[in-house]
Write a structure and sequence with these properties.
Elements (H helix, E strand, L loop, with lengths): L3 E14 L2 E14 L3 E5 L6 H9 L6 E9 L2 E2 L5 H7 L4 E4 L3 H4 L6 H12 L4 H14 L5 H4 L9 H13 L5 E5 L7 H18 L2 E6 L2 H7 L2 E6 L2 E7 H6 L4 H8 L48 E4 L2 E3 L5 H7 L11
Parallel strand pairs: 3-8, 3-9, 6-7, 7-8
Antiparallel strand pairs: 1-2, 1-4, 4-5, 9-10, 10-12, 11-12
Helix pairs in contact: 4-5, 5-7
Bound molecules: iron/sulfur cluster.
The site of iron/sulfur cluster has 13 residues, from loops.
């Protein structure tokens, strides 16, 4: 992708535990274009948050990250902690699910935004205050002058999430990673926050990577989506394409499990089986134990390959995957 702002290549993340190393992310490669809203979707524990934390350099010391994470052409894996700190909150920012864990209860919301500005910019406190007030207005906080001195607990959940987004935008980042930013909110507030993110992308051209388990949120906001399962990236497509013609059996199962408006009680579809143990994951495709189409070659990891310009899939059912694995045309039979 020529105008990519973020490029991940062969990213692996492992966590050392007493029982062995958890392979939380395995060989993930993707690109996000400047100005795009890219969704990362999958069940809890599939590695999407770990991938975002690896991008931000926020993983604990027990984690091992390998591969390449390039932001605006600059390699972040192995970057000195001080250089990473300078990038965070400035060129890259992150919004977490629970605003109360991001906001310091001991300081007012306005002070916290102003502090983010003065930490990265050589500005006077008065200028930082003015900018914080403008940001509060930007994210739809009514009467910013009056609310500036409020402690976080005086705001509703939706308002607190707006403050967290204002803080993330304080230094006009080129890239914002938003991890389940609406999960803790009711549907009305969720819709307002999604409108806000859409509006901010429009006005500021901020690139957004949205992490969620909710395909409805993906449908409302994103341009493209990457589907993760058990630490592997299994499909990437435009949002329209993923809903129109999902190709990977896991994506198909996820969409089939979505409740419909006229769902009969007790008829909700589930994906049979369990996510594999990532301390000792199966060789090859990690969806194999739950996949109705599993075959012999699924013990080999299927490479993510282009079925079309905008649609990539990692599954041995795909001719594109087979061609990528056997470029000389030596594909073994059985593709559907
Ligand atoms: Fe199923 Fe094999 Fe495709 Fe994995 S690679 S989704 S096990 S058919």
């Amino acid at each position: 992708m020529s105008d990519a702002i973020l490029t991940l290549e062969h990213v692996d993340v492992g966590f050392a535990t007493d029982d062995g190393t958890v392979s939380a992310v395995s060989d993930v490669s993707l690109s996000v274009a400047s100005g795009e809203i890219f969704g990362l979707v999958g069940e809890s524990g599939c590695g999407k948050t770990t991938l975002a934390m690896a991008t931000m350099g926020l993983l604990p010391a027990s984690a091992t990250v390998s591969g390449s994470v390039r932001f605006q052409g600059r390699e972040l894996v192995g970057l000195a902690p001080e250089d990473l700190r300078r990038l965070r909150g400035d060129r890259i920012s992150m919004v977490f699910q629970d605003p109360m864990t991001s906001l310091d209860p001991a300081f007012s919301i306005g002070e916290q935004i102003a502090e983010t500005i003065t930490a990265h910019r050589n500005v006077q406190r008065g200028q930082a205050r003015d900018r914080a007030l403008a940001l509060l207005a930007d994210v739809g906080i009514p009467e910013p002058e009056r609310r500036y001195g409020d402690a976080p607990h005086r705001l509703s959940g939706g308002m607190r999430q707006r403050v967290v987004i204002a803080t993330a935008l304080a230094n006009e980042p080129a890239l914002m990673l938003a991890d389940e930013p609406t999960t803790a909110l009711d549907v009305t507030i969720q819709s307002q926050i999604l409108d806000l993110l859409r509006d901010l992308r429009q006005r500021l051209r901020t690139t957004i990577v949205l992490i969620t388990h909710d395909l409805g949120v993906i449908a409302q906001l994103c341009d493209r989506v990457g589907v993760m399962y058990a630490g592997q990236l299994v499909e990437i497509a435009t949002v329209a394409e993923i809903f129109r013609a999902p190709r990977h059996p896991y994506t198909q199962a996820l969409l089939a499990a979505l409740p419909t408006q006229h769902q009969e009680p007790g008829s909700l579809r589930v994906i049979p089986g369990r996510v594999p143990n990532l301390i000792d994951p199966p060789p090859g495709c990690r969806f194999a134990s739950r996949c109705p189409y599993v075959m012999d070659e699924c013990t080999i990891v299927p490479p993510l390959a282009h079925e079309s310009a905008d649609h990539l899939i990692a599954c041995w059912l795909s001719e594109a995957t087979r061609a990528a694995a056997h470029p000389a045309g030596a594909a073994t039979g059985g593709a559907a």
